[in-house]
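Record type: monomer structure entry
Structure origin: computed from sequence
Chain ID: A
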Amino acid sequence: MLKKWGYFLDGVVITLIVLWTLFLVTHSPESVIEIIGVTNGFLATFLVALLGGLATITFISIFPTLISLAAAGLNPFLLGLAAALGMTLANILFHFFGVRGSNLATAGMQKQLDHLMAWIKRSPDWFLPITIFIYIGFTPFPNNVLTISTGLIGCPYKKVLPPLFLGNLALMTITTYLASIGYAIITG
């Protein structure tokens, strides 16, 4: 029964994201803002980032939202901030799943996790935060892979959360600034 609910919720999230993306594709950026309003644009960005961040495949759904709303003239930094907050909340949930799921690891897997954590502890203090920031902020890979992994090896939230948020903020803000600049160049 629980598995059926999971499939149902996955279907609802994917359907909402597809409908939202179709809405963005079929309307000009200016008309999107006329329809939903400026304040709702930031709220929509947060929700799309949160829901998209909860699914490994649909995390890319935030990019059409950012591009459309930045092209419509919304503040790129505030859009990036709203998206970063939504993505980070979703990422924290996956870190939590990793922490809770670590006790389910087989003996062989636990040995590998312990080895990885020992290696991280031997590395300089700056290594993990910088690695998280670069991975989240400058690679196209899903954040869930990293956040589940840091949870599995027992990295504390206080070491993971700041670079995770800053990486999300960097990626989302860079995307919105480039979108607004690109739209201005294209439309003259």
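Annotation 1: The CA atoms of residues 105 and 111 lie 9 Å apart.
Annotation 2: The radius of gyration is 18 Å.
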